[in-house]
Design a protein that fits this description.
Blueprint lengths: L1 H13 L3 E5 L1 H5 L12 H4 L2 H4 L2 H6 L1 H17 L4 H11 L5 E4 L5 H5 L4 E3 L2 E8 L5 E3 L18 E5 L8 H13 L2 E5 L10 H8 L3 E6 L4 H5 L3 E4 L2 H13 L1
Parallel strand pairs: 1-2, 1-7, 2-3, 7-8, 8-9
Antiparallel strand pairs: 4-5, 4-6
Helix pairs in contact: 1-12, 7-12, 9-10
The structure holds zinc ion (ZN).
């Protein structure tokens, strides 16, 4: 594995425009459960039942019970070594952007500046009646669902199943995928479209694709030029350290 880590670091050094695509796997080490193959929250709340826009619209109280627990989990979570390594690479000028499928803001809290939030953000909420915007820290989650001054129900600005990707994020992500010369895929099996097409766009545009995951994914043999198996929180800091020296 050492030689793979060294090769990834060499490629980053050679790269002029590297970006990262991250998914739930990078935040699992911070204690935020992934939908798939996880324990905890998603055992109690089946995402197929709780994370769809239809469920939110038909029973906001039920879905807000899940959201409240998710917010509490995210509030307790801290960025881990993988988030920090990506922020460090950006600060070194070796990483231009992070496209994330996560809504936990841990990249920003770790210090990443250019973060494309492909699935929106839990930091802000929108009133479904008047369109009013709110920040989560101003919301009292004792009474759910939280309501706007107008009486409308507040919905987090995260993409629920059945909702479109925010157009600006989609446009930025695809532009970055076409432009990059190296893509780090971290903690995502990249099976859900349209995020899943980012590694393929990058590869078809001539980028090297480096994948860091706990186990092989459908990308590993078809798209990735280099697969590093293991914990992102251990591998990324090693790569960042080698790039620095
Ligand atoms: Zn309102």
């Amino acid at each position: 594995m050492r030689d793979r880590i060294e090769r990834a670091a060499e490629w980053l050094k050679e790269s002029e425009f590297a970006i990262a695509l991250t998914g739930a796997g990078i935040s699992v080490e911070s204690g935020i459960p992934a939908f798939r193959g996880s324990q905890g929250l998603w055992d109690k709340y089946d995402p197929a039942e709780y994370a769809t826009i239809e469920a939110f619209m038909s029973d906001p109280f039920k879905v807000w019970k899940m959201l409240k627990e998710l917010y509490e989990t995210v509030r307790r979570a801290e960025p881990n070594a993988a988030h920090r390594a990506l922020a460090e690479l950006e600060a070194m000028g070796k990483l231009r952007a992070v496209i994330t499928q996560n809504v936990d803001s841990l990249h920003q809290r770790a210090g990443s500046r250019n973060v494309i939030e492909f699935h929106g953000s839990g930091e802000t909420l929108t009133c479904l009646s008047c369109g009013g915007k709110f920040r989560i820290e101003d919301i009292d989650l004792e009474n759910i669902p939280p309501l706007c001054h107008c009486g409308g129900i507040l919905k987090p600005d995260v993409v629920f199943f059945g909702e479109p990707i925010p157009p600006e994020a989609l446009k930025s992500a695809f532009e970055l995928a076409e432009r990059c010369d190296l893509l780090l895929v971290v903690g995502t099996s990249a099976q859900v479209y349209p995020a899943a097409s980012i590694p393929r766009i990058a590869r078809d545009s001539g980028a090297r694709v480096v994948e860091i995951n706990l186990e092989p994914t459908p990308l590993t043999h078809e798209v990735s030029h280099l697969f590093i198996e293991g914990k992102a929180g251990e591998i990324l800091p090693e790569i960042a350290q080698l790039v620095k020296t």
